[in-house]
Amino acid sequence: MPSPAAPPAVPSTSPAAAPGDDGPTGPARPAPAAKILARQAARESAARTYARHLPIVPVRAQGSWITGADGRDYLDCLSGAGTLALGHNHPAVLAAIREVLDSGAPLHVLDLATPVKDDFTSALLEALPPELAADCRVHFAGPTGADAVEAAVKLARTATGRRGVFAFTGAYHGMTAGALALTGANAVREPAVAGDAFLTRLPFPHPYRCPFGLGGALGEGASAAYVRTLLSDPHSGTAVPAAVVVEPVQGEGGVVPAPDGWLRALRATTAEHGVPLIADEVQTGFGRTGTLFGVDHAGVVPDVMVLSKAVGGGLPLAVVVYRAELDRWSEGAHTGTFRGNQLAMAAGAATIRHILAENLAARAAELGERLTTRLTRYQARHPLLGQIRGRGLMLGMEIVDPHATPDALGALPAAPLTARRLRAELLSRGVIAELGGRHAAVLRLLPPLTLADDEADHLMTTLHQALDAVADHTTTRNLEAAGV
Q1: CB-side neighbour CA atoms (13 Å) of 146
Q2: 397 three-state secondary structure
Q3: Around Cβ 333, how many Cβ atoms within 10 Å?
Q4: How many CA within 13 A on the CB side of residue 299?
Q5: Where do the DSSP E strands lie in 426-476?
Q6: Do the beta carbons of residue 12 and residue 73 sit within 8 Å?
Q7: Which residues contact 310 (CB under 8 A, 6 or more apart)?
Q8: What is the per-residue pLDDT across 430-439, written as a single tens digit (0 to 9) for each?
Q9: Distance (Å, rounded) from C-alpha 361 to C-alpha 310?
Q10: Model confidence, pTM
Q11: For residues 245 and 257, what is the distance between their CA atoms, to the nearest angstrom?
Q12: Which of 143, 199, 205, 342 is the most buried (most CB within 10 A)?
């Protein structure tokens, strides 16, 4: 395993042994990667996603690096879809988990009080926006962010007595039925969501593909005005909702940050009409965007925050934090068998405290700015990079067809096949990344917050090589199509 300070220029090719492998007379080595992948394809459902496009078999991991069963080392810029804020097997996280295991403490306690839970809650309150932490309640939901979204919406409906919910185009809130109804991607919604009787879909101010065809401040203003009109116009045909749900940065939607002024306007409008604002911070929380929480960029304090991924230190955990005045639930209003995961709470507390102690949010902001500067330089050379956007270490590159006709605002059509080729080129060079956004044409980078400077340089160098390879391929293909 390469150290974080020395990323491999060329991945190793020696076979990877399992931890503790003593050679020919010791424990058996893992099955060859090809056999494991073939068995996975034969046994697992057709709904699997990452495994289809990232055909590797991880056997060891440390920091920003994964070693596959093929013996190759990979720089992990997916980080469990943003879950591994401190990277793989961080010493602080492992120590916290071992302490619980060695203590003999129960691992499964439903929602009973334990010293581990008490310590986690204390760490969480230390990190929250002070205005919210001063008078809030914490609800432990099931193990996923989707369940926490469901809980947050149910909470708002109970507190307000209203049913409707406002959500946004491009949104992603999870795969359970209620969370899926809020999600914007038609391909994943349609088979499961029979109707949206209580949902109003609002236009999110996309900086490259403005839903109003205006762009920039005009598009942001139109989106904000649309929300105000729906809530204040007695002829809008839309009832005041139970909640508005928003991501400070749309992740799966293509790394689209909510403009600060727009988010402040949304907060003001919801407050004026007594509508709880739910911030889905599942992917943006705990330093990912360069501030502790995504809403901090706009100076906004929501009524409800949904937290998962990094909050569990890499283990399954999801919580809802909300203003105490909303706590009108009756006993058992929202439960879940695995809401008392003690190992996740210990790992989560260690992660939160390490992020605070090492000021990793500021580190993500500084490093993210450097990476964005490099990417912008690459964009000047590679017109297939339609837009570079993101915040902190949550970055996206919109891949477009530079030979197509742009729209009225200069945006080029998405190029999903080129994006897939770029992802494959990166993987062949030892970098794990994933796609998202419209037509899955946005290359997303979510490296650990602990990414070292030389690892960042290695990433940028490799990305530049992959872009060159994709551009050469695209040029050759176009010449062949033209008969040259």
Answers
A1: 11
A2: strand
A3: 12
A4: 4
A5: 431-432, 434-436, 442-445
A6: yes
A7: 82, 83, 84, 85, 285, 286, 287, 288, 351
A8: 999 999 999 9
A9: 13
A10: 0.91
A11: 15
A12: 205
